[in-house]
């Protein structure tokens, strides 16, 4: 099969979050399975050019219709760790992708409307006719709209679209001018509620809604989050639209890249280990303690790795630090806060706890240290308020670090409570789950985990090994996406 991914990120060359990892990881898996994959991306000025091999001009004169005129683009081609990528560079005064950042400009909706249009124009002009176009998040929500309303009449009538939503919170809100710019025109038609009119703001168009309405299949990044978005509050206003299109909506769990996240071959950890030699994990714990100046003692070590913000349940993260100390455990935190208030709160805590030999707060982004923490810690807390998929619990499992998570989104699909899970037999359970957002809830889950570590070490070790036995690679999601592609191709 021939698949083209159209996206605003692809790790490691352009990465702001999980989206980049998915675009890269899924493409790699599809290629391993013998399919042909190409990725179309914006050519940002600030992307990591050092991760692109053989970048060269592939198509010099791509003329993209825009506001009745046109913008000339140059399309570059290069390989990102083996994946074939095309980068679109518009040559206009708008400087759409020369902003020193990926997102956050006032005209983001115009930047990505243009990118969506340019990507389709590129396919059209170069006679590329993929079986499936896979696009992602609000930035490329207009791709299926443009394909169905314009490009199918120019010879692209056989292309099918799979649309994946990684984050319902950002939906791409725009006014009627985007219709004029992209050549869709006809505002009354697109402002219908069953097309692109925002469900709550009658004066706005919603790109993500367009993506849902016009795609052949829509996915989000875990089955439980698909349910939450459809029936609960996490669809952020799109629940009704998902309901109307439920026959083509589902959840596919993200995978993680076991070439990067694997304690057997991890170059960042001093003592590689596997389930057969789990004792070596203890040597990494010692190395972690030495690196962070923590005391060497008979205590369990609990960690948190991730952004410090409301989505991640930052108040519970904070509570977990003090509860761990209270329960005679150690705590390591690696994270960055984007919001100034939360940032100063955690810097204050860091200073306050500075001389405590049982805790370390590292307030930075440090990929290398994160590997050592996953390897050295006994448990990892993930108390998110909402979590479409979540990677840290899956990485923790691979490294034999028992996850203690709140039962939301993808966490529900990946962590099964040792004591209370109803869906898995005891020998398949792998962590601890709590549900409420109050401090007692996380305390009771941490209590059970710490108690097992302290009083039943053999049982704890069993739990560790059960977690390591799980396969959260791209193997299963790759097969799931292929099934979806086959389904929409023959529909
Ligand atoms: P998000 O919602 O931020 O995408 P995920 O759990 O899906 O959360 O992915 C987070 C990824 O980022 C994980 O690979 C995690 O190890 C990494 N990460 C988060 N914060 C940091 C940090 N401060 N330093 C290093 N890696 C981090």
Query: What is the annotated CATH architecture of the largest domain?
Result: 3-Layer(aba) Sandwich
- Number of H/I helices: 17
> What gross morphology would you assign?
elongated
pLDDT average, as an integer? 97
In this structure, how is the largest beta sheet organized? 9 strands, mixed
Straight-line distance between termini: 16 Å
CATH topology of the largest domain: Rossmann fold
* CATH level-1 class of the largest domain: Alpha Beta
Cofactors and ligands: adenosine-5'-diphosphate
Brief summary of the model shown:
With 491 residues, the protein is α/β, with parallel strands linked by helices. The protein has 17 helices and 17 strands. The chain folds into two domains: 2-255 and 475-489, Rossmann fold (3-Layer(aba) Sandwich), CATH 3.40.50.2000; 275-468, Rossmann fold, CATH 3.40.50.
Describe the structure.
The chain has 491 residues and is an alpha/beta fold. The chain has two domains: 269 residues, Glycogen Phosphorylase B (Rossmann fold), CATH 3.40.50.2000; 194 residues, 3-Layer(aba) Sandwich (Rossmann fold). It has 17 helices and 17 strands. The chain has a nine-stranded mixed sheet with strand order 3-4-5-2-1-6-7-10-11, sandwiched between helices. It has a six-stranded parallel sheet with strand order 14-13-12-15-16-17, sandwiched between helices. It has a two-stranded antiparallel ribbon with strand order 8-9. Strand 3 and strand 4 form a beta hairpin. Helix 10 packs parallel to helix 15. The longest helix has 18 residues. The chain is elongated and about 70 Å long. The site of adenosine-5'-diphosphate has 16 residues, from helix 12.
